[in-house]
Amino acid sequence: MTADPDWVRRTDVLLRPDPARVVSALFLPGQETVTAGESRSGKVLERVMALSDDEVAAELDALALAFDGRHRDLRSVWAAHFRLVQHRLGDPSEVDADRRALVGATFTHEVTLEGAALFNPSVVAHPDQSGVVAGSLRFVLTLRAVGEGHVSSVELRTGTIDAAGSVALDPAPDVAVRAEVRPATYSRAGFEHQLADLGGDLTNAEFVLARLGPTFDRDELDRALGELREQRVTRGAAVRTVEMFEWMAACTYAVEFPADSATGERVLMPHGPAESHGIEDVRMVRLETGEYVGTYSAYDGATVSVQMLRTWDLVGFTATRLSGPGARDKGLALFPRPVGGRRLALSRADRESNGVCSSADLLHWDEPVSIQRPVQGWEVVQLGNCGSPIETEDGWLVLTHGVGPMRVYSIGALLLDLDEPTVVVGRLERPLLTPAPDERSGYVPNVVYSCGALLHGRTLVLPYGTSDTATRIALVDLDALLAELRARPTKEPR
Q1: Domain range holding 46?
Q2: Name one GO molecular function term (predicted).
Q3: What angle do CA 129, 133, 138 make, to 5 degrees?
């Protein structure tokens, strides 16, 4: 590891994981572990129903004292969880309001969001800049929060940077708010792309697709799948085809946060089957249209796939699974605008070098063109990107990460041609950021890593994770960085 350039300044911003930050979730006794067995819900319900009215009231008073300050509208959560188990009761209508609440609370538990880590951030301009003084910018961080069971979620935090380069994060909200699921709209082209990746005999899939429009909802999909089920006797593998469509539909979802929730309260938790064990390393970028798009690694406990979040207001989000050779492995990062009439993205499909791939619809990504291979000592193990390219007058600025001996992660940079982004016009020979002594220890030692930076005037705002544990922010002098990149032109071997 070497000293960082003098044109990089670490700020005093430090976000550490807070184990007190929790959300509520459904709890089913007997089914709470990986080796879950038979549900004990029936026996638990019997014991709750056997409590006296005074005991119920006393329990609710104690729960309110212990938990109300840690959650937003906990009674609504209990009511929802009561409805999920009420079928086990003889006549739910005979259960009074207090006992309903206690039943719901009995089938609820807290889940820590960031008990283990809060790291790998990206940063974008906040959609609401009202009230911000001239020369300042309000921003939004996306952060990977790792909690119970090493499951990763996405947290949002807000802050500002002023004209003098002073960074201030807003205080963390007292509570975390989960999004509510909304009906999703599906893309036939998106399903076609995914089916091509999944492979196999697509005859039955084509039968279903022929009954769907360019976009369709769940009811339309169910009708098409129903027609296939009716022909399952004469159509081999129909059951498998139905399962594939059900899985793709489950991976595509829409969620929405309460309109009155603060941005920093919002937490995106895993929802679809492809991300059941985590939403990891969101690379958020604001497109030229004003839409925010974040690509991320979806982990199901065994495999990783690339998915995409889309939102206009950071209130309503949609998630879609991506496909194609460019969307293999991790680290797809979109360019903020089209180049040459097509959408482009950085890709690390071969797991060790940086490339650029293209798409006609943001859903299917073509084979990437290699632009950078590991050649420096600090990157000999592998390369990747640290978020979406940033447009400058000299070219597309790409922050990279390199992994070297002792598995040390450092952050470097590339400069790509504005009109031909597969052409590298400059490359740092040394990292611009390496783990400082107080950043080297953590869940994964010796790592600095970012999922996206932001340009504010002539300053590059670079949030980064430290050793898969905490988050800091560095400021980079853009002019000095560009000068060093221009002084080291390079032509990558083909």
Answers
A1: 22-112
A2: hydrolase activity, acting on glycosyl bonds
A3: 40
Which residues lie below 8 Å from residue 287, measured CB to CB, with a gap of 6+?
293, 334, 336, 337
pLDDT tens profile 262-319: 999 999 999 999 999 999 999 999 999 999 999 999 999 999 999 999 999 999 999 9
Task: Classify burial at 51, counting beta carbons within 10 Å of its beta carbon; exposed 0-12, middle 13-18, buried 19 or more.
Answer: middle
Tell me the per-residue pLDDT of 400-449, one tens digit each, with 9 for 90 and over. Answer: 999 999 999 999 999 999 999 999 999 999 999 999 999 999 999 999 99
How far apart CA 485 and CA 481 sit, in angstroms, is 6
Regarding whether 423 and 384 lie in a shared domain, the answer is: yes
Question: Which residues 6+ apart lie within 8 Å of 19 measured at CB?
Answer: 112, 114, 115
Are 258 and 312 part of one and the same domain? Answer: yes
Distance (Å, whole) CA 481 – CA 227: 60
Q: How many other CB atoms are found less than 10 A from the CB of residue 38?
A: 8
Query: What pTM, to 2 d.p., does this model score?
Result: 0.94
Number of residues assigned to the chain? 494
Between strands 278-286 and 292-299, the pairing is antiparallel
